[in-house]
């Protein structure tokens, strides 16, 4: 027993213990059938409650593996124009300090992952892939004058319930990790799910004589994960630094600068300030921006000035091959020529 906890401590020391350890399912998760309970042991970072959820809901694991992949790709795409570009999520289930400490970056990744899991489960319900759920219930609100409720909506309720049970488990029933970090992670997970809830929108399909749309059926569906990630990115930029301190008799997270107000349900929170990610510093989980591409005409975060932190940039030209002068031939193929175009590229010094 003593030996075991020593091993756990040791592993935590080498950035192994993390509440988003399950993102490592991207490594082996797809090659598994998820039809035998011993498959749940594949990733030894699942906490006991997650293991139990897995054993009881094996089919759901496909949705969770999918969510882990979506978390990775959407995070990288959403942050590709920033100094911190979510590249370290690639190392899951191992995490560098940018994601292993209570930073702003880990806040947004937790929120994104929480949203992705519930999103994925809610969608799987609607597509009939899960035995425990089906389409979401018909909305209680009256349909508009020009449509009726129909089709199959995403089952948000089931997605939220099962998703929260899975992603919140590491914070709920474990003795490792600080109380402050657990509160931070739980809060940010809830923010991710709230953004998901707010993304629910009415989607419609037309019927009737060739596009006349005389009959319209509508249902409630979730927005794409890219839209949800974009919303979370703006929350990341406006995230609030918090401290863990006594408020009355209980210890809570409160904004550091303005600790008279409680933390809002809509804001991402973090405990540890991040480096500026300008220079390489492995101890801080910063890769630096040397050799990163920047955009000379942009004045956003991918501008050469901001991306290169004022160090300047090198320009080089690159030839890119493109299909051009495409012609459509009756019937049915397209021929194109290949054109070469020279483009200027800029990379940070
Ligand atoms: C599990 O799934 C795999 C592939 O999907 C299949 O080959 C195997 O027979 C299944 N095993 C059981 C016990 O159903
Ligand atoms: C993936 O599978 C390999 C071989 O089965 C195993 O050695 C490795 O630890 C697994 N990786 C993860 C992240 O579970
Ligand atoms: C993200 O940043 C890393 C480290 O600076 C870099 O190697 C990688 O190419 C970047 N990825 C993208 C898509 O820009
Ligand atoms: C650079 O930024 C400008 C303005 O935001 C944009 O129109 C252009 O597509 C960007 N170029 C590249 C290569 O991303
Ligand atoms: C660039 O900055 C100018 C003024 O500083 C602003 O009007 C413009 O909208 C900005 N463009 C972009 C693409 O952010």
Automatic annotation (TrEMBL):
One of its GO terms (cellular component) is extracellular space. GO terms for biological process: animal organ development; canonical Wnt signaling pathway; cell fate commitment; neuron differentiation. Pfam families: wnt (PF00110). The keyword Signal applies. GO terms for molecular function: cytokine activity; frizzled binding. Transmembrane segments: none annotated. Residues 1-19 form the signal peptide. Ligand for members of the frizzled family of seven transmembrane receptors. Belongs to the Wnt family. This is Protein Wnt.
